[in-house]
Design goal:
By secondary structure, this protein is mostly beta strands. The protein is 0% helix and 54% strand.
Length: 111
């Protein structure tokens, strides 16, 4: 299965973006998927995840980001609102237990 992210871009602080992660195959049976991000010079961190329908968020994005999964579309989403400059990073979707990672999409939030 290949994962392809889209939806990144440049947005002003306070704005919103929705990232999509389209899978080339079925993600219905993948029990754990997540969104990660990596800012320059920093490690790749987990932003949001979904395990068997249960969501989990990094403290820094709680209340602002929402992860969702559409099995029929084989797509994972990340809705981001109230964006902050510190959210600037390359965002990756992944099913780590299967070794599936996307190529990343850049999100830049200007102040």
């Amino acid at each position: 299965v290949q994962l392809v992210e889209s939806g990144g871009g440049l947005v002003q602080a306070g704005g919103s973006l929705t990232l999509s992660c389209a899978a080339s195959g079925s993600i219905f049976s993948i029990e754990y998927m997540g969104w990660y991000r990596q800012a320059p010079g920093k490690p790749r961190d987990l932003v949001a995840s979904m395990r068997d329908g249960i969501t989990n968020y990094a403290e820094s994005v709680k209340g602002r980001f929402t992860i969702s999964k559409h099995n029929a579309r084989n797509t994972l989403y990340l809705q981001m609102k109230s964006l902050k400059p510190e959210d600037t990073a390359v965002y990756y979707c992944a099913a780590p237990s299967y070794g599936y990672w996307g190529q990343g999409t850049q999100v830049t939030v200007s102040s």
